[in-house]
Amino acid sequence: MAKILVIDDEKDIVELIRYNLKNEGFSVIQAFDGETAIKMAKTQKPDLLILDLMLPGMNGIDVCKAIRANQETAHLPIIMLTAKADEVDKIIGLEIGADDYITKPFSVKELMARVRTVLRRLQETKKQPLKEYFKHEGLVINYASCRVDVNGKQINLSPTELKLLFFFSRNPGRVYSRDQILDHVWGDNTFVTPRAVDVHIRRLRSQIEKDIENPQYILTIRGFGYKFADKK
């Protein structure tokens, strides 16, 4: 049974989400402020966070950054939940490491679908792969343990970033369009847009590339999409 941490200062919203998650068979814990959420993420070890952007004191952006900066919690999937529907806010949320984004007022059915999709994506990254290791120009991937190192330094990636990197590294040299990447990485999650692909790839590059303006691993092919660099 997956454990989900719901973080929102509106108790009615927390109760609504908690009730529906429990009906779906999930275990639920809750926090009403950012500081408590960070502590619970470390001690309670949830499988997924549903995080409101507008929190008292420490806001959701700062909570997300803190979760991603800590090695113990960096891998946790985060669905950002917020009343802000502006595209800029959505992009900021994705760029700092959120795996998905949903705006208030939200459909409970849609939120449950996104929770299942993010958790399924996490499980897929943990499945026994066809090969255990990948090495290329200082980048080392252990598919079995989901560990990524760049020039000897361990890099903490979100589940979505991991799955993107796994997908590209298993198909070096092959160019994929944004729609093809959506199909392979997000599957039947119809809520994700081609624009989100660019945001997640930029986020992944910021983690693994020495110079994101001149990447050596995940390359942009103008007019077509992206590819992992050809192996020598």
Lay out the secondary structure.
Blueprint: E1 3-7, H1 11-23, E2 27-31, H2 34-43, E3 48-52, H3 60-69, E4 78-82, H4 87-95, E5 100-103, H5 108-126, E6 133-136, E7 139-142, E8 147-150, E9 153-155, H6 159-169, H7 178-186, H8 194-208, E10 218-221, E11 225-228
Parallel strand pairs: 1-2, 1-3, 3-4, 4-5
Antiparallel strand pairs: 6-7, 7-8, 8-9, 10-11
Helix pairs in contact: 2-3, 5-6, 6-7, 6-8, 7-8
Q: What would your notes on this structure say?
A:
With 232 residues, this protein is α/β, with parallel strands linked by helices. It has 2 domains: 3-125, 3-Layer(aba) Sandwich (Rossmann fold), CATH 3.40.50; 128-228, Winged helix-like DNA-binding domain superfamily/Winged helix DNA-binding domain (Arc Repressor Mutant, subunit A). 41% of the residues lie in helices and 20% in strands. The strands form 3 sheets. The chain has a 5-stranded parallel β-sheet with strand order 2-1-3-4-5, with helices on both faces. Strands 6-7-8-9 form a 4-stranded antiparallel β-sheet, with no helix packed on it. A two-stranded antiparallel ribbon has the order 10-11. Helix 2 packs parallel to helix 3 (60-69), helix 6 crosses helix 8 (194-208) and helix 7 (178-186) crosses helix 8. The longest helix is centred in the middle third of the chain and has 19 residues, at 108-126. The termini are far apart. The model has no long low-confidence stretch (mean pLDDT 88).
